[in-house]
Amino acid sequence: MKRILVPTDFSEHAEDALKAAAQIAKKNGAEIFLLHLLELPNQMNDAVTNGSSIPEVMLFIKKANEKLQKIKEQPHLQGITISTTVQFEKAFDGILSFNKKNKIDLIVMGSHGSSGIEEILIGSNTEKVVRLSDIPVLVIKKDLDTFNIKNIVFASDFSKEIKKPFLKMIEFAKIFDANLILVMICTPNSFKTTSMGEKTMKNFIADFEVNNYSMHIYNDSNIEKGILNFTNMVGADLIGLCTHGRTGLSHFFNGSISEDLVNHTIKPVITFKI
After folding, report:
1. Which CATH architecture has domain 3-140?
2. CB neighbours of 255 closer than 8 A, spacing ≥ 6?
């Protein structure tokens, strides 16, 4: 994960994401790509396409570049290679197209935290990126003075389709030398005996070289509450999930993780595409 994209609208939430990305970059010797997307009115888009020079457009570009330059000069970004781009494109489309052109390894995005996180899951740009991005997406919920990840909960059904994205989870955990806390959530609708769950998890992890990990079975009334309650119980710093790409946050046990999980946690969440 040497190339990190941080989309910014110059909000506090975007700044929180940039702070986390900076700490990852310093630990991993990574480069940060700071991207601001301009969505212009249709008439301005037509003029830009025709090569016309519109004062308003030029002013937007100038102001955006000035803000990006000011961001680059912040003390906590010193020593990090940072590239800045102002791009004319809708936010969601622009982020995904930028990834492909620049071979990005990780996207770090901000969100509104527990009170407004439903925007991630109901048609927002962040939700679309989480759902459709082929690369890992780290969503930061609040300002973290120190993005020091020591314990990561990775919740899954540990099926075969999870193996490929799990390699990315291992790669991310190694950046921080973090402990992976693997958990299978059992509910009345997706019941597994402890022996069945343990066997599934042991067979899954046997295919990987992982040293710092533990395996757990946790029972709760539903998957979302189980992940949230288990994460709080073990005091983890980050939640890792896999995304399916069709229904938003990944399906577990033939279902989908509902907005409840993200609505009620202020923990950062990293997602990996199946």
Report:
1. 3-Layer(aba) Sandwich (3.40)
2. 189, 190, 223
